Amino acid sequence: SHSQASHNFRTRSSHLSAWRIVSKGLTLRATSMANTDAHPHVSEAPLMCYNWLCPYVHRVSLALTLKKAQIAEVAIDLSNKPAWLPQLSPLGKVPAITYLENGEQQVLYESLALMSWVDEYYKGPALMPESPAKRALARIIIARFDGTAVTKWYQMLRSDKIEEFSELLKVWHTEMEWLEKHLDSKGPFFMGATPGLVDAAVGPWLLRIDVLQHWRAVNLLAGHPKLSAWLATYRALPEVTSTFRQPAGQGTWNEAMAQAYKGYGKTQLDFSSAAAK
Amino acid sequence: PHCAPHWALTPPRHHRSTSVNRPYIEHIGMALPEYGEKPQLTSEPLLCWNWLCPYVHRVTLALAHKKAHIAELNIQLPHKPTWFAEFSPLGKVPAVTYLEDGEQAVLYESMALMDWVNNYYTDGPSLLPSSAAKTCLVRIISSRFDSIAVPTWYKMLRGVKEEDFSPSFKTWHAELTWLEGQMQGTGPYFMGAAPTLVDTCIAPWLLRVFVIQHWRGVDLLAGHAKLQAWVNFYKALPEVAATYRPPAGEPWEGAMSKVFAPIAIESSNFSKMQA
């Protein structure tokens, strides 16, 4: 389900005659412009380079929805990037956000930096705890997950050798144990009663555990009941489900996501015995 | 990478800052440090510190710009106190601990700690720009420097042979070229008129380029005039100079080059690689 059309859009509509505005959402389809040099108009209203499947983009989408904020988007097909992409995203990646501040184009990227930007730019619920100590703890948790767990997730998906996969899975489980220990004791979210940037930072890879179930037949949260409980609560939030934006005709978000990772997973392998060790 | 061991040197006997009630841990002479009893935790933050570590230096620089003082625990990493893990779970410095609402906060990771300093010491100036976009840029620059330039600095330090040194040297220069391109306005600080967490994030390794000069015969700032100018300005600031706390009687540069000996292993002369 798409977010409601935003007031942000009205100020930009006069510049967007070359673009098709799809559905009630804010997503501009870039494909019609793929062969031209012209990039979308940059104004004072932030514009995000977006892609429905990318977990790094998902971090930002989650932060935006929790902040009750909306942003204009241009959808980027990563397998067919428009030539103008570096002007909005210097490293040619998503997510990226750009807008004019005092007439100067700001070009922002790095999903973790962008999540903090969302928290600071928009007025809305605070996405970080108030106390300096808790904020530091949030950053420690995010940095550790980003440094190890994310890499292991991709390495497991790409691994076609069960011995190698077992080693990766062991590291993953060590990381999940550490992560569980750092869940707020009362919860239900990472830092307490309300969801925030820690949930958004780890969410995309935990929301995608069915990808590993599909391609490698393992449940990445087996043996981590508190994380499983967190995940169940998190994915049930309407804000979170609003970020599930798979293309029409591709089934559920989980189904579409599993297929999207075919290039990594290649063929389905049953590594469930690695999990049993 | 954690700090180089420094058993060759006598650690400092005096600390500049801190509350008088804080028990000081001092290493007398060359004997193994005696840490005594584990310090009592209070609501006052305690920084696990030592004089040489560049990661610690990020935190002391942030504190300096905030004109803040913090109680310190001088930790000799090759000889940690038995109770150190309660203050620093990964056994590293820097680490900060204190009681918040009766619960012990255990904080580490220099990047998180720089933000902590900025959040905790509200009397001093903010170390982040006023706009969300510029603050985001601070984070982009800092995380890139931390992920690439810092490990590259250590690779150069370890690169005794040319085939190990040369690729890292190339990467270093590419990163510094990118970094210079990010400098904002006319300075004199990285982001403009005021110090920010970019200055504190990058400074420790740029202020220690003499270590690589000593061990590898190259000037890491050659060809990067803007960054050289920034280094010259930054290290002349009294609050920055005050963060240089080598062991009593030892010169900062000489002592620092010596402590990195176990990582450098032996000198090389790669001056011919200099542009």
Task: Provide an overview of this structure.
The complex is a heterodimer of chains A (277) and B (275). Chain A is of the alpha/beta class and 277 residues long. Chain A has twelve helices and five strands. The radius of gyration of chain A is 19 Å and the shape is globular. Chain A starts with 26 loop residues before the first strand and ends with a helix. The N terminus of chain A is likely disordered. Chain B has ten helices and four strands. In chain B, helix 1 links the parallel strand 1 and strand 2. The N terminus of chain B is likely disordered. Chain B has a four-stranded mixed beta sheet with strand order 2-1-3-4, covered by helices on one side. Chain B has 275 residues and is an alpha+beta fold. Chains A and B meet through strand 5, helix 3 and helix 4 of A and strand 3, strand 4, helix 2 and helix 3 of B.
Features:
heterodimer, A: 277 residues, alpha/beta, 5-stranded mixed sheet, 12 helices, 5 strands, disordered N terminus, B: 275 residues, alpha+beta, 4-stranded mixed sheet, 42% helix, 7% strand, globular
